[in-house]
Amino acid sequence: MGFIYNLIEWSGAETIFNIGSFGIRYYSMCWLLAFVVSYVLMQQVFKKENKSQEELDKLTMYIFLGTILGARLGHCLFYEFDYYIQHPLEMLLPLRKVNNEWQFTGYQGLASHGAAIGILLALYLYAKKTKTDFMWITDRLILVVPIAGAFVRIGNFFNSEIIGKPMETIYPWGVIFTKVDNVVRHPGQLYEAVGYTILFIFLWLFYKKSTTPKPGLLFGIFLVCLFSIRFIVEFYKENQEEFESGMLINMGQLLSLPFILAGLYLIFRPVQQQLKK
């Protein structure tokens, strides 16, 4: 990374260090930090709520699988449906068939909206299996989701992916992603990371200071705020797929709207209309 005329020049370093042919990537490290930090914070929540370590470990496994599967399938179905509907095995395998030969590519493509859906399904299954109230566990888990999302977006920055649009007016925080081109762009990934971090601080303090908020209130605030941040930041980011170019709002914004509406419902619904587990 360097600075040119008060701008950031980012060369897109992807690997922290290599052990032989195996490299430790910044993006993978950010994902790992997202889960580790979330786990440590949830330990505090479960301790406060008199829940056992065993329950947290079981929840962590559900969330991990829900996040990975949801993010992967979300990308395949929302952004590259035409390709993956003809290559369904590649949705779940970190492989791609090139010239009739299978090549290891890793999971190139993860969608945050798919991750959100996957997490919700995982929470539903966890609540049903453990006979835990769905709204109770959801109100607690969303406390750590924003900070996890911030780590993932920082990983995207390291990879020079999901880049921002060119700046019409040059600001000191403009970034030149030299792996892509020499254009001064908005650091859209960092905009999201900052927004998610602020949301995390707000939700955490709200949880710590509030006594007994109505079930679903924290979840509703989370949905409205996080997906509003996503909706706004999308105006400063390049579209991820070509088909989005002709859309009034892009796929990320379109997918954010149902979550925002669901959040508004949870915030303003009468207390007695509690969702059942």
From TrEMBL:
Q: Which gene encodes it?
A: lgt
Identify its membrane topology class: Multi-pass membrane protein
This chain's source organism reads Sphingobacterium thermophilum
Which residue ranges traverse the bilayer? Answer: 24-42, 62-85, 105-127, 139-158, 190-207, 216-236, 248-268
Note the superkingdom of the native organism: Bacteria
Instruction: Tell me the keywords, alphabetical order.
Output: Cell membrane, Membrane, Transferase, Transmembrane, Transmembrane helix
Q: Which family does it belong to?
A: Belongs to the Lgt family.
Which InterPro entries does this UniProt record tie to the protein?
Answer: Lgt
Task: Name any one GO molecular function.
Answer: transferase activity
Name by which UniProt lists this protein: Phosphatidylglycerol--prolipoprotein diacylglyceryl transferase
